[in-house]
From TrEMBL:
Signal peptide: none annotated. This is Pyruvate dehydrogenase E1 component alpha subunit. InterPro entries: DH_E1 (IPR001017), PDH_E1_Alpha_Subunit (IPR050642), THDP-binding (IPR029061). SUPFAM superfamilies: Thiamin diphosphate-binding fold (THDP-binding). GO terms for molecular function: pyruvate dehydrogenase (acetyl-transferring) activity. Residues 16-312 form the Dehydrogenase E1 component domain. GO terms for biological process: pyruvate decarboxylation to acetyl-CoA. Keywords: Oxidoreductase, Pyruvate, Thiamine pyrophosphate. Its cofactor is thiamine diphosphate. Pfam families: E1_dh.
């Protein structure tokens, strides 16, 4: 905790608070019926994205999942552009053609959210191979869930990352469920991190409600990758505060399951308590961030709602990549 500067601590809090406010607002807005497509909220899992991304810059790549808003925000993708994208507007980061599950911003090293479970891992391994060949000390991070951790594509990517000694970090966000299926039923081992041994890489399990635990584990894995020592697996144990998708009745969860986590483990609550108790941050500074973030989300929603949709002619652009 004390190794982080005041500026870094405030940044981490701002990232987590922005994700929370973004997702809580989307939860409300989605219910109005104005947002097209599917939305999977990341609220509750903020410390994972913030803890990992604190070590990355624009040169480093990440590959995300269907639950990708938090990863995008922590990777500095523009919040208004994301909101407009989710509303399907022309001003969105992908001109409104991607929506929630296909937000990408290559200028930020954000290779994309992904509707195909486990499909981000090979993309990250490819980006890590590119970084290795360029020799620029960049790394790539693959995020996937407990469900994604059972996918063959993830195993193949982990195997090749190890065989090629790639600067690739695999982050398994274990929120206990894949849709309605509990991970203690669908994952064959007790800890996803134990699978690392099968691919000859280190694996650790960390408390995903604790920003500092994630930050430390990610820092070690990323430093290792930058030093040319190869890939790692980090299992981050956490929970999602909302359903699998917006509209999920969550009949498979105990009635007060989320309430318990919110009241006793919440990552923002713990971060605030620990940093203020240790005298590292002032509550007033955190309150000010809360207010600024609320205002920025309010503005993002208002602008996104008012923005134009793509026109039929826009269908014909962005079909192929234009190489300079
Ligand atoms: C290859 C593939 N199989 C199945 C699906 C349907 N599907 C979408 S999300 C999901 C669950 C993913 O669970 P997990 O990886 O734990 O991520 P979480 O939703 O918990 O963040 C499934 C099965 C899909 N999109 N892609
Ligand atoms: Mg899951």
């Amino acid at each position: 905790m004390s190794t982080l500067s005041t500026e870094q601590l405030l940044h981490a809090y701002r990232v987590m608070r922005t994700i929370r406010a973004f997702e809580e607002r989307l939860h409300v807005e989605f219910a109005t019926g104005e947002i097209p497509g599917f939305v999977h909220l990341y609220a509750g899992e903020e410390a994972s994205a913030a803890g990992v991304m604190a070590h990355l810059d624009d040169e480093d790549c990440i590959a995300s999942t269907h639950r990708g808003h938090g990863h995008c925000i922590a990777k500095s993708v523009d919040v208004y552009g994301m909101m407009a994208e989710i509303y399907g507007k022309k001003t969105g980061v992908c001109q409104g053609k991607g929506g929630s599950m296909h937000i990408a911003d290559l200028s930020k090293g954000m290779l994309g959210a992904n509707g195909i479970v486990g499909a981000g891992a090979p993309l990250a391994a490819g980006a890590a191979l590119a970084a290795k060949l360029k020799g620029n000390r960049a790394v790539a991070v693959a995020f996937f869930g407990d469900g994604g951790s059972n996918e063959g594509a993830v195993f193949e990517a982990m195997n090749l990352a190890s065989v090629w000694n790639l600067p690739c970090i695999f982050v398994a966000e274990n929120n206990g469920y894949a849709e309605a299926t509990a991970s203690n039923w669908s994952v064959a081992c007790d800890h996803i991190a134990d699978r690392a041994a099968g691919f000859g890489m280190p694996g650790v399990t960390v408390d995903g409600f604790d920003f500092f635990a994630v930050h430390e584990a990610a820092g070690a894995a990323i430093e290792r990758a930058r030093a040319g020592e190869g890939p790692s697996l980090i299992e981050v144990k956490l929970t999602r505060y909302y359903g699998h998708f917006e509209g999920d009745a969550q009949t498979y969860r105990a009635p007060d399951e989320v309430k318990h986590y919110r009241e006793t483990r919440d990552c923002l609550m713990q971060f605030r308590e620990r940093t203020t108790r240790a005298g590292l941050l002032q509550a007033a500074a955190l309150d000010a961030i809360d207010a600024e973030v609320e205002a920025s989300i309010e503005e993002a929603v208002a602008r996104a709602k008012a923005d134009p949709k793509p026109s039929p002619a826009d269908l014909l652009s962005d079909v192929y990549v234009a190489y300079p």
